[in-house]
Design goal:
alpha/beta; single chain; seven-stranded mixed sheet; 677 residues; Aspartate Aminotransferase, domain 2; Spore Coat Polysaccharide Biosynthesis Protein SpsA, Chain A; 3 domains; Aspartate Aminotransferase, domain 1; 15% strand; 23 strands; elongated
Length: 677
């Protein structure tokens, strides 16, 4: 029997939360070098092997390992077990020690004790972290060569192979031993996964003047005497990374470098399931999404914020875009597709004669307002509904923080919006023609901008009354159909009600996931664009118009608006059936193809969070609304409600007294646009 001991040091630079952490400076040398200094203080260690990946990004790490006198082995990024097996081939040692590169405070004295106890117990596996009693960052796992090679042959679970030792611990094939401290310090965090962790470790090493010869008990004494040095990472839980998916880890990284974490408030994890939402996708097809961990999820939620009415990755739309990319997306010359698309949209809306294109709904709304103001020579706009993020719209809240109370953005601070815009936007309530009449009587309005319908249908005569008022006072009537367009009619929802605006905007579903929005209108109004400056380089790219043309073709052929409306009606009916079955009260809102519900309860937001949490565990992306797509087939809908049924039962239990907060694994989600993080 060979009693030699080899440490296999697992490290890579591609950390999910803190990339390059093992190369980060620690008292004038890379953190990995500091750890190696400490490992070399353990007399029982005969050899130290650096096991890193084959990725180019780890070339520098491999070079560092060689400069430190380590044997370097490179293998799979994700199959770390196979990487360890390769490392074992570099030594005849029968005793192998697993150490990770993010634990620079690992104590050589503790390691020495554990190696001695491992020999004395005669086990195959020995650790101080199952269960943990030592501070996080002092983790050591010791196992026999035989146990490792047996795991290499027998273990087939990718997750177990990524973490090296689970099969050894759980298979029942190996004798296990453990080392526990007489007191439990497992809540202390001395590992390095987050920037705050690195801050703490740097403070510790600085206290010891950059030396590497201190013991873990000295660090413990420091923590008791100067707890402020350890405050930075106190909010992180032990082994938090192991419990987090790759998307959750990336979301945490994102919020360090992107204000708010991403580009769209509606896609922030906090809007769905704080701390648990997968946040990012690797691919999408039909009504299915795969997260960064490869988990397949059925999207019964917002379907790309309503962009993919034909489902993700529609083959015909994607083929048209692929051909366009191959032919060239951008040129000094204009793309002909924008002319063809303008003609197509005008043909669908006989009242309109001209079109301008952009790439987002907010841009389309801003274009419409600029044109309307140019056409009338007036400044003030009356609004009803949600119309984007631009200054002209957020100016509503300059006068009154409740100005957008009924328009998705209550209480939003209009920071950054020029105060001189105060009074230029006047809000009115849906179905309140009297309010609009009052505004028009006291202001010279350039435009009335409104959604045809969002949460409820227009009262008889309301839209007609708005049209007559605008005619009477020379006001440009603008319908914002960025959300409602092509969901209940082939074109704008206004076609259903027979009321024609002077301008209208379309977005979201128009390109089935590709960026394209349209502002269409009467010639007499649209020509005013030539008297102002409305222009952008990337409004002239080719992909958006190409996608829109093919999307319109498929929509018309398949009569997609009828399909999604019927499906939405079925979804609404099933929600109500579940509510009736379990005796809970819900309110419905939205058009059928964009349908939603709310529990009639003070705990409504907590119940929404609970449903999102429980349905995610069952493989569904869920909120309290569904942007229906043509890929939401009956079998998908039926499976969704089978999974949802028992969770409505949980809601009933909570309405009868059970504390919903005891069922939640994290915070309650944010409510609409009311909270920004």
């Amino acid at each position: 029997m060979n009693d030699q001991v080899a440490v296999i040091l697992q490290a890579r630079t591609g950390s999910s939360r803190l990339p390059g952490k093992v190369l980060a400076d620690l008292a004038g040398r890379p953190m990995l070098a500091f750890l190696v200094e400490r490992l070399k203080r353990c007399a029982s260690v005969d050899l130290c092997i650096l096991a890193t990946t084959e990725l180019v990004e780890d070339d520098a790490l491999a070079g560092l390992g060689e400069s430190l006198g380590l044997t370097v082995v490179r293998g799979s990024q994700n199959d770390v077990l196979s990487r360890f097996a390769l490392a074992a081939e570099q030594t005849q040692a029968n005793v192998l020690v697993r150490v990770t590169g993010d634990c620079p405070l690992l104590d050589p004295g503790l390691l020495e004790e554990m190696i001695h106890e491992f020999h004395g117990q005669g086990v195959d596996y020995f650790s101080n972290c199952i269960p943990p009693t030592y501070p996080d960052g002092l983790d050591v796992e010791i196992f026999t060569r035989h146990a490792l090679l047996l795991a290499q042959v027998e273990c087939i679970d990718p997750a177990q192979r990524e973490h090296v030792t689970p099969w050894i611990r759980d298979s029942g094939r190996c004798r296990l031993g453990q080392k526990r401290y007489h007191l439990d310090y497992s809540a202390m965090r001395w590992t390095v996964d987050e920037p705050e962790d690195l801050e703490v470790v740097r403070a510790v090493v600085a206290h010891f003047e950059g030396r590497s010869d201190f013991a873990w008990e000295q660090v413990l004494e420091l923590a008791q005497q100067q707890p402020q040095l350890f405050a930075a990472n106190a909010r992180f839980a032990r082994n938090e990374g192991a419990m987090m998916g790759e998307g959750q880890k990336l979301w945490r990284r994102a919020k360090r470098v992107i204000p708010g974490g991403n580009m769209l408030l509606s896609k922030r994890a906090e809007m769905f399931l704080p701390d648990q939402w997968p946040a990012y996708f690797s691919r999408a097809k039909g009504c299915r999404v795969w997260d960064l961990d490869g988990r397949e999820l059925i999207d019964m939620s917002i379907m790309g914020i309503g962009t993919n009415l034909l489902g993700y990755g529609h083959p015909e739309v994607d083929a048209a875009v692929t051909a366009t990319v191959a032919a060239g997306n951008m040129s000094t010359l204009n793309c002909p597709e924008e002319v063809w698309l303008a003609e197509r949209l005008v043909a669908l809306h006989p009242w309109a004669e001209m079109a301008r294109f952009a790439r987002s709904g907010g841009e389309a709304n801003a274009i419409a307002i600029r044109i309307a103001r140019a056409a009338t020579g007036r400044d003030t706009v009356a609004i009803c509904g949600y119309h984007g993020w631009h200054d002209w719209y957020l100016a509503t809240n300059l006068q009154n923080e409740s100005g957008l109370e009924e328009h998705l953005m209550p209480g939003l601070e209009p920071n950054g919006v020029p105060r001189t815009l105060a009074g230029t936007v006047q809000p009115f309530s849906f179905n309140r023609l009297d309010q609009l009449e009052s505004i028009a009587a006291s202001h010279q309005l350039a435009a009335v901008k409104m959604e045809v319908q969002r949460n409820s249908s227009p009262d008889p005569g309301f839209l007609e009354g708005v049209r007559e008022l605008c005619n009477r006072r020379g006001i440009v009537l603008i319908f914002d159909e960025c959300t409602s367009g092509f969901r209940e009619t082939f074109g704008g929802l206004h076609l259903k009600y027979g009321v024609e605006p002077d301008m209208a905007m379309f977005g979201k579903a128009l390109g089935n996931g590709y960026a394209i929005t349209a502002t269409i209108g009467r010639r007499a109004v649209m020509e005013a664009a030539q008297t102002s400056f409305i222009s952008s380089t990337f409004w002239t790219e080719r992909i958006g118009p190409t996608a829109a043309l093919k999307t319109l073709e498929v929509m018309e052929r398949d009569r997609s608006w009828e399909l999604v409306t019927r499906t939405g009606q079925e979804i609404r009916k099933h929600w109500q059936m579940l509510a009736d079955k379990h005796g809970v009260n819900i309110d419905h809102w939205g058009i059928p193809a964009l349908t939603g519900y709310t529990f009639r309860s003070p705990n409504a937001l907590a119940y929404k969070t609970l449903i999102t949490q429980e349905m995610l565990a069952k493989g569904y992306l869920v909120g309290n609304s569904v942007y229906v797509c043509t890929e939401h087939k009956p079998n998908i809908v039926n499976g969704f409600f089978d999974a949802l049924d028992p969770i409505f039962g949980l809601v009933k239990q909570c309405e009868e007294g059970r504390d919903v907060m005891t069922l939640l694994k994290g915070p309650v989600c944010h409510g609409g646009f009311k909270r920004l993080n």
